């Protein structure tokens, strides 16, 4: 898979590549940037008292990695192992995990503009799906892998303890815009930012909504008199965080607004993408304490 990571166009094109995989008859997708490799299933060592979604562990090139039963995590029927099954080795949120899936089909390059927000029609999947797109006559659902990991280990998400260590602060007059597509993470970010003293945060479900709002604000006056900073995720339907940052830095009315990218995709190999589009800072989820410290550097 590593050789495919160079296929993506430059940062800010609002495109991504998806690895399509199957769970039963359902088609799902994962951003190719999260995929280290795809391997054939190997024997898994069960771990006593582990979470029900965790099949066990395997050793891969000297590392011990957990294997997650993706079908079980989604509440779908389990089935016997077949020759089509695959292990997807992933890396995000600074950790490596393996997801057991029922097959991998192909890689698609798509525009974020074509990816729609999921609706309640995806009965039972809505909390685990961040976007949907029609490809080759069927619907492909973008799976929220971070949500699955937080279901297994809640401490892997945003926690108040990391913010409380900063002590009491007065930031209530400072306004921040936040673009984050995950309802769960929007809620957690709101709570943790409020704990950090930032009570005036405006949240948006994707980069397109955030950009339109900020453009409207800029029509009223200097943008930094209205907002001090923008925090954005990378993976979002309609418009991703890299493209959002690029659009802001190309707009003379908005370019003074500092942008911090807060994403599970922040790695040493990918920092250059955020730097290229003009991000003022980049923080890997779930390092909320580091995020708040970085916000303080750019707040007026």
UniProtKB/TrEMBL annotation:
Name the keywords, alphabetized.
Phosphoprotein
The question of whether Phosphoprotein is a record keyword is answered with yes
- UniProt domain Response regulatory: residue ranges: 175-300
Superkingdom to which the source organism belongs: Bacteria
Q: By its UniProt entry, which PROSITE patterns does this protein fall under? A: CHEW (PS50851), RESPONSE_REGULATORY (PS50110)
- Gene Ontology terms: biological process: chemotaxis; phosphorelay signal transduction system
InterPro entries from the xrefs? Chemotax_regulator_CheV, CheW-like_dom_sf, CheW-lke_dom, CheY-like_superfamily, Sig_transdc_resp-reg_receiver
The keyword Phosphoprotein is annotated on this UniProt entry: yes
Coiled coil, from the record: none
Pfam families, A to Z:
CheW, Response_reg
Give the matching CDD domains. Answer: CheW
Residues carrying 4-aspartylphosphate: 233
The CheW-like domain sits at 15-154
Protein name per its UniProtKB record:
Response regulator
> What lineage is on file?
Bacteria, Bacillati, Bacillota, Bacilli, Bacillales
């Amino acid at each position: 898979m590593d050789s495919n990571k160079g296929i993506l166009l430059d940062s800010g094109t609002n495109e991504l590549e998806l690895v399509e995989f199957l769970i039963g008859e359902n088609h799902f997708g994962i951003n190719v940037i999260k995929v280290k490799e795809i391997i054939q299933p190997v024997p898994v060592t069960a771990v006593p008292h582990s979470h029900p979604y965790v099949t066990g562990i395997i050793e891969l090139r000297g590392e011990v990695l957990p294997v997650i039963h993706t079908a079980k995590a989604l509440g779908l029927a389990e089935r016997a192992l077949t020759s089509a099954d695959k292990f997807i080795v992933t890396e995000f949120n600074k950790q490596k995990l393996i997801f057991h899936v029922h097959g991998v089909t192909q890689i698609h390059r798509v525009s974020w503009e074509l990816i729609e927000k999921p609706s309640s029609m995806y009965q039972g999947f809505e909390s685990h799906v961040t976007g949907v797109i029609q490809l080759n006559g069927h619907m492909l659902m973008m799976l929220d892998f971070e949500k699955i990991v937080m279901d297994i280990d809640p401490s892997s998400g945003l926690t108040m303890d990391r913010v409380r260590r900063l002590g009491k602060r007065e930031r209530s007059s400072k306004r921040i815009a936040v673009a984050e597509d995950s309802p769960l993470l929007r809620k957690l970010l709101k709570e943790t930012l409020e704990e950090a003293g930032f009570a005036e945060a405006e949240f948006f479900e994707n980069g397109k909504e955030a950009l339109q709002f900020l453009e409207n604000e800029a029509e009223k006056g200097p943008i930094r008199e209205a907002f001090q900073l923008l925090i954005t995720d990378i993976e979002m339907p309609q418009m991703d965080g890299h493209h959002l940052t690029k659009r802001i830095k190309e707009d003379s009315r908005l370019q003074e607004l500092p942008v911090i990218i807060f994403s599970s995709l922040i790695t040493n190999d990918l920092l250059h993408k955020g730097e290229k589009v003009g991000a003022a800072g980049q923080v890997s989820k779930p390092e909320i304490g580091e995020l708040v410290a970085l916000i303080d550097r750019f707040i007026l």
